[in-house]
Amino acid sequence: MNSDNILVIDDEAQIRKLLNITLQSNGYKVAHSATGGEGLSAAATQQPDLVILDLGLPDENGHVVLKKLREWFTKPVIILSVQSGEEDIVKALDNGANDYLVKPFRTGELLARIRSALRGAAIETNSPVIQYKTFEIDLVARTVKINNEVLKLTVTQYALLALFAKNEGKVLTYQYVLREVWGPEYTNQLQYLRVFVAQLRKKIEKNPDRPEYIITESGIGYRFVASE
Amino acid sequence: MNVQLPFGLTLNRLSKRSQYLISIVTVLSVSGICFSLHNYIGVEIVAFIQLLTLTVIAMFFDILPVLLTAFLSVVIWQFFFLKPMFDWHIVDTADEIMLSMYFVIALLNAVLTYKIRQIEKIARQKEEKAQVLKLYNTLLSSLSHELRTPIATIIGSTDTLLTDANKLTADDQQNLLLEISIASLRLNRQVENLLNMSRLESGFIEPKKDWCDMNELVYDVLKHLDEQLKSHSIQIDIDENLSLFKLDYGLMEQVLHNLIYNAVQYTPCDSVIKISAESEGDTLVIKVEDNGHGFPEEEIDRAFDKFYRLKNTKAGGTGLGLSIVKGFVEAHKGTITLHNNIHGGATFTIRIPAETMLLKTVKNE
After folding, report:
1. I need a labelling partner for A56 at 20 to 30 A (CA). Which of A10, B102, B151, B303 fits?
2. B172 to chain A: which residues are within 8 Å by CB?
3. What does the alpha-carbon distance between residue A215 and residue B38 come to, in Å, rounded to a whole number?
């Protein structure tokens, strides 16, 4: 059992109630707010370990709430919204959301994303070696091992994989990855990313056509999954 | 079909034949008037008057009648006005140049005016398209919220009930079931609203009228809203001897349901919602009144518009509820008005002309 605190900011009483019961029965402590204003002050006073934020709030646009929250809040934020357009998702991720789940959602999926986001948050403060079940990345020695075998990677392949691994479970937008790995002037060069992701998949996936590690979030970006 | 004209004028579209006819008659009449005045005005003035006539015709008609007008006015000007009169022969070179100039100006005038109209038409179509798109997006986003939220509740609750059953208390399980039930009813209501809207849109709403007891109708509606009304207090003011009215029970049920539901949704908890019905001669007057915050005055006129949602309102809602109310009331040939109360809150007043029957008459039978 865990005892992480989760703050739910959603104006729909039904969703709050559902999340309350589901999260509590999975061992989380839950607090909730019905408006953006209440949510921001609850986040400040209660210091939750994770925030679940709806975008359609009555007092303020969820994107604005997210921006305000990100001015000081460093823990994971998961967006839970009916808005399913790529534009909204990319905007939220760019504004600092760790993950985005569209309503209706499966509670199993939400719980997995919560676990993954909380784990990611823990890794950031930990040692330079990132370790998952079959994966080990040593950020100092710049080596990657899969099932204890060292992978031969080019500099860019390594940079890409390291970026994914540091953000395990989190959706990274194409623009973000391009900026981080290639530089700000490459944010429109999606073809680079496609080529290098394909190369990486060939090296790390059992079946590159059905990837298990580097998952495509269509129209948005990639999610690296190594621990589920 | 209306034709939009420059400067915001509109005109019923005329058939091609009428356009030709009007063009010819106009050119002939103007020429006739000019001819009767030709001793007082010079040939240049006549040319200007005819060009003006051509411009006016070009503003209203299609390109072919306009070109015909241009051609006709050139011919008339040459034959009847340019000296020597009644002669196709032109003596003076200056006159020859003037005639060619007149011809070119007339043609240019016709074509340019027509082109301006075309450009305006395209711009207008673009604007209309953008507005439709905006409306469509607004509708889509409010609909997706209204439909996906209850679906999310149902899927989420069943997921939790199925996978985490052993971790849930009996109370939690009961609560999740209750949420599923509320969400299903909400979904049902939205689907009902959408279906009603499409019925109204298709224009085939024919009230099936029969004798209705307003008391029964109101209590029936309240019974279905039981769950939502817990946070509000309801006052009913209907004389138990109020006459029966010939109305469509189903449509009126929906009207009251939407009005009361609306009042519950958009007034603070513990607000009072007052429902009254009385007869004024052959007119049934129903009022739904609340003591909430009222409507912003500038938005009252738009409150019944389809898909219209008040600014600064809470998320959710399709903007269909009140437009359906209006549609159904109007299907009964009635009216609905909305005004803010002096001491806060708002009142919806429905007036429907209806056949009445005194309850006493029925009871004595």
Report:
1. B303
2. 21, 24-25
3. 87
- What are B's interface residues with A at a Cβ cutoff of 8 A? 141, 144-145, 148-157, 159-160, 163-164, 167-168, 172, 175-176, 179, 182-183, 313-316
Summarize pLDDT for B236-259 with one digit per residue, the tens.
999 888 888 989 888 898 899 999
Mutation site for A-interface testing, chosen from B142, B158, B160, B309 by largest number of A Cβ within 10 Å:
B160
Distance, CA of A22 to CA of A111 (rounded, Å): 9
Average pLDDT of span B292-297: 88
User: pLDDT-derived band of residue B2, with 50, 70 and 90 as boundaries?
Assistant: very low
Residue B273 has pLDDT above 50, yes or no: yes
Interface ipTM:
0.73
Are the C-beta atoms of residues B238 and B199 closer than 8 Å to each other?
Answer: no
The residue in chain A having the minimum alpha-carbon distance to the alpha carbon of residue B179 is: A14
Average the pLDDT over B318-345 and give the result: 89
Contact B156 A26 (CB under 8 A): no
- From CA A141, how far away is CA B147, in angstroms rounded? 52
pLDDT tens digits, A66-109: 999 999 998 999 999 988 888 889 999 989 899 999 889 999 98
Q: Testing the interface with A: which of B136, B138, B145 to mutate, by most A Cβ within 10 A?
A: B145
Chain A nearest-CA residue for B266: A58
Q: What's the rounded Cα separation, in Å, for the pair A185 and B238?
A: 72
Considering only residues 99 to 128 of chain A, which have any Cβ-Cβ distance to chain B shorter than 8 Å? 103-108, 110
